[in-house]
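Researcher: We plan to redesign the surface later, but first we want a full-length starting point. C-alpha cells attached.
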C-alpha cells in the first residue's frame, strides 16, 4: 500500500497524527491532490496546529482553482476564513471570506457550498446580540445546505438558528434545533471540524439555557467523541472545560480542578477556545474554597481572552467585603450583552445588589428571572429564581414569605445533585428559622449546611455560616420549615430520585464507583452516598441485589 493510501486510511480512521505523517511524506514525494491536501490541513488543525493547517488549506484552495473545481475552492476559502476567526485574525479572515463570495458569485450554476458563506455573518450577528438578524442569516444557511446537499452548512445553520432563538428567549424551540443539529453529527454526516464546533457550541448553549440535563448528556457524548480520535487537541480542551463546570456544580471540586487544568494545557497546545473556560472554572473553585489571590489570578487570565470573567470576579469582590465594587463590575458586564449571557448573571446580581443595599435593583433582577421561568421549565432556572426571591424577601424583612420559595429551591438543587447550592439554601433556612424564633430548626439546618461546606472545603461559606446573624429582627411569625427526611421525601417523586435511578442503571451495567463518577461528572464520594441511600430506600445490601432490582423494574 502506498504512503498516500496509508494517509487516506489513517484519516478515515481518525488517527490524526498518523494521517499527518503519511500525508506529509506523500506530499514531499509527489505532491498531494487538492482533496488530500484539504484532508491533511484538517488533520493538522485537529492536532492543535491551527496556523499551519490554515496555510495548507490555502494550498488546497489554489490546487482546486488549478483543477477548475471552483465550488471546492470556495469551500476551502470559507473554511480558511472561519479557522482564521478562531485564530483571532479577523482581517485575514475577512479577505478569505470575500474571496469565497466572489468565486460563488462568478459561478455559472448555484454553488453547493453557498450556505457556508452565511455562517460567519450569522455568527457576527450573534456576537453583537442581534438575534433577529441571526435567525434570518442562519435560516438561509440551513435552507441552502439542505437544498444543495451540503450537510455541513445545513447542520451549522441549524445550530446557529437554535442559538439565535435561545438568545431571543425561545428556549424550547432553540433547544429542539440544537438536538436536530446534533443528530447530523452523531450519525456521521458532518465533517470533523464542523462536528467539533457543533458539539462545543451545543453544550455551551445548553448551559446558557440552564438545561443541565442536556449539557451533561452532550458533554458525555463529546467526551467519547474526543476519546475515539487519536491525539485530538482541537475541541478536547473545550470538552475538559465543560467537564470542569459539571464537576463543580455536582460538588466534585477536586475533579473540577483537574479538568480545568487539563483544559488549560490543551489550550496551550492548540485548543485556544478552551483558555477562558479552563481559567474561569479554576478561578471558581479557588473562590469557593477561599483561595482569593489564586482565584483573582485565574479570572485575570480568563479576561485576557477578551471575555469578562463574570459573575465570578464580582462574587469574589463580594466575598472580599467590597459589595460596591462587585456591583459596579457586574452592572458593567450586563450592559449591552446578548440576552442569553445576561440571564446567566441575574442570580449573582440579586445577591450582590442585596449586599450593596439596593433592594430595587435586586427586585428588578428577581422579576426578570421569574418572567423567564414562566416561559420555560428548566429546574436549574427555577431553583435560581426561587433562591433569589427568598434572599430578597429576607432582606426586605419577610422571612415567613421567604420560606416557601427557598424550600422549593432546595428541593430542586437536591434533584439536580448540586450539593453546594442545596447547602446554601439550608444555611439561609437556618437564618430564616432563627429570625422566626424557631431555634431548634435553625440548629438542624445550620448543622446540615455545615457538614456539606466542611466536606467541600467551602471555607468562605462556612465562615459566613458561623458568623451570620438574622437580618430581619422585626419579621412576622411563620411555621418552621420541614427538615431532614420529611423534606427529602417531599423532593422525591418516588422511592428513588432521578440521580439515584441513574446510579442503579449504571450499577446494573457493571460499572465501578469510579466509572459511575466519570459518567455522571460527580465524585466517587457522591456515588458512594447515592449507593448508601439506594440500599436504605430499597432495603438491599449488595450491588447484585441492586442489579436484580434494576432488571425487575425496567431500569437496566
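Model: Full-length starting sequence:
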Amino acid at each position: 500500500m502506498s504512503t498516500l493510501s496509508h494517509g487516506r486510511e489513517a484519516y478515515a480512521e481518525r488517527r490524526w497524527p498518523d494521517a499527518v505523517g503519511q500525508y506529509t511524506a506523500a506530499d514531499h514525494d509527489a505532491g498531494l491532490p487538492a482533496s488530500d491536501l484539504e484532508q491533511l490541513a484538517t488533520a493538522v488543525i485537529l492536532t492543535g496546529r491551527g496556523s499551519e493547517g490554515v496555510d495548507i488549506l490555502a494550498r488546497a484552495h489554489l490546487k482546486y482553482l488549478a483543477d477548475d473545481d471552483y465550488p471546492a475552492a470556495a469551500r476551502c476559502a470559507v473554511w480558511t476564513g472561519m479557522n482564521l476567526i478562531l485564530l483571532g485574525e479577523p482581517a485575514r479572515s475577512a479577505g478569505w471570506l470575500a474571496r469565497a463570495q466572489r468565486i460563488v458569485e462568478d459561478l455559472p450554476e448555484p454553488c453547493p457550498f453557498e450556505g457556508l458563506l452565511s455562517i460567519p455573518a450569522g455568527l457576527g450577528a450573534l456576537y453583537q446580540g442581534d438575534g433577529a438578524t441571526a435567525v434570518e442569516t442562519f435560516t438561509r444557511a440551513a435552507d441552502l445546505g439542505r437544498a444543495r446537499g451540503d450537510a455541513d452548512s445545513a447542520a451549522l445553520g441549524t445550530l446557529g438558528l437554535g442559538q439565535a432563538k435561545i438568545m431571543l428567549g425561545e428556549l424550547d424551540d432553540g433547544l429542539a434545533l440544537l438536538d436536530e443539529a446534533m443528530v447530523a453529527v452523531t450519525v456521521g454526516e458532518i465533517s470533523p471540524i464542523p462536528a467539533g464546533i457543533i458539539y462545543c457550541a451545543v453544550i455551551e448553549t445548553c448551559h446558557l439555557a440552564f438545561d443541565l440535563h442536556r449539557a451533561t448528556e452532550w458533554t458525555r457524548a463529546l467526551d467519547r467523541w474526543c476519546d475515539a480520535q487519536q491525539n485530538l487537541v482541537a475541541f478536547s480542551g473545550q470538552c475538559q472545560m465543560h467537564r470542569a463546570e459539571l464537576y463543580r456544580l455536582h460538588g466534585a471540586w477536586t475533579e473540577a480542578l483537574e479538568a480545568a487544568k487539563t483544559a488549560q494545557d490543551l489550550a496551550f497546545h492548540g485548543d485556544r477556545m478552551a483558555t477562558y473556560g479552563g481559567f474561569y472554572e479554576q478561578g471558581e473553585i479557588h473562590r469557593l474554597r477561599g483561595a482569593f489571590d489564586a482565584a483573582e489570578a485565574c479570572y485575570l487570565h480568563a479576561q485576557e481572552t477578551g471575555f469578562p470573567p463574570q459573575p465570578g470576579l464580582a462574587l469574589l469582590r463580594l466575598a472580599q467585603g467590597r459589595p460596591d465594587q462587585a456591583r459596579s463590575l457586574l452592572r458593567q458586564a450586563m450592559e449591552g450583552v446578548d440576552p442569553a449571557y445576561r440571564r446567566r448573571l441575574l442570580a449573582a446580581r440579586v445577591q450582590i445588589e442585596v449586599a450593596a443595599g439596593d433592594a430595587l435593583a435586586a427586585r428588578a433582577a428577581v422579576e426578570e428571572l421569574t418572567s423567564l421561568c414562566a416561559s420555560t421549565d428548566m429546574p436549574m432556572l427555577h431553583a435560581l429564581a426561587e433562591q433569589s426571591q427568598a434572599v430578597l424577601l429576607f432582606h426586605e424583612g419577610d422571612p415567613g414569605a421567604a420560606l416557601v420559595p427557598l424550600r422549593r429551591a432546595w428541593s430542586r438543587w437536591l434533584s439536580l445533585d448540586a450539593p453546594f447550592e442545596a447547602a446554601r439554601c439550608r444555611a439561609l433556612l437556618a437564618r430564616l428559622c432563627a429570625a422566626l424564633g424557631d431555634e431548634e430548626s435553625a440548629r438542624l439546618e445550620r448543622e446540615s449546611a455545615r457538614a456539606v461546606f466542611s466536606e467541600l472545603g467551602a471555607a468562605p461559606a462556612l465562615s459566613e455560616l458561623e458568623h451570620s446573624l438574622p437580618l430581619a429582627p422585626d419579621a412576622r411569625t411563620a411555621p418552621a420549615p420541614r427538615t431532614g427526611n420529611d423534606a427529602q421525601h417531599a423532593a422525591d417523586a418516588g422511592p428513588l430520585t432521578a440521580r439515584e435511578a441513574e446510579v442503579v442503571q449504571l450499577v446494573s451495567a457493571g460499572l465501578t464507583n469510579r466509572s459511575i463518577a466519570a459518567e455522571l461528572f460527580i465524585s466517587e464520594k457522591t456515588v458512594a452516598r447515592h449507593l448508601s441511600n439506594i440500599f436504605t430506600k430499597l432495603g438491599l445490601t449488595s450491588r447484585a441485589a441492586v442489579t436484580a432490582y434494576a432488571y425487575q423494574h425496567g431500569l437496566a
